[in-house]
Amino acid sequence: MDITSGTRADDAERQQVADLLARHLGAGRIDLTEYDQRVAQVWATATREDLHLVLADLPNLAAERPGGRAAGNRGARIPIWQRIEGAAWLGVSVLCLVIWGLICLGVGRFTYPWPMWVIGPWGVALAFRALTGWEARGCHKRGLAG
Question: How far apart (Å, rounded) are the C-alpha atoms in residues 86 and 93?
């Protein structure tokens, strides 16, 4: 957050400071009474410099995400639904390959590699959605993506 002396703060900046205070409360750096007082002070603040004073005695958390990840890693995180779909694809792929392998062992020779029709198209669809972010566009606008 850019703190410039005398520049008036807007509601988005106040909300950002209030969120940082909530994280400090969750970490045990401030108690609930102090949190309430500081949040009231944040919403009564007119300038960015006064917002900075509310956080002056607390460590800087702006570059860190709540899970301990740096803000620069935000794009590298894979959404939970894509991790679940990927795990399901991997499990089904392994199951199909095991079944195909057992059939080949039972027959005594390699048979038609039918698992490619399960693994291939499903994998391509998952990769397309993950690489393009196609399905996540609406979730990011609504704030639903994690």
Answer: 10
Give me 123's structure tokens: 């994998």
Residues 6+ apart with CB under 8 A from 39: 18, 21
List, for residues 8-28, the tens digit of each pLDDT value. Answer: 888 888 898 888 888 888 888
3-state helix, strand and coil shares in percent for the chain, rounded to the nearest 5: 65, 5, 30
Residues in a beta bridge with 127: none
Residue whose C-alpha is closest to residue 43's, from 59, 65, 21: 21
Q: Which two tokens stand for residue 55?
A: 């956080």
- Please give the C-alpha separations between residue 18 and each of 57, 101, 119, in angstroms, as whole numbers: 15, 58, 47
Query: What's the pTM?
Result: 0.45
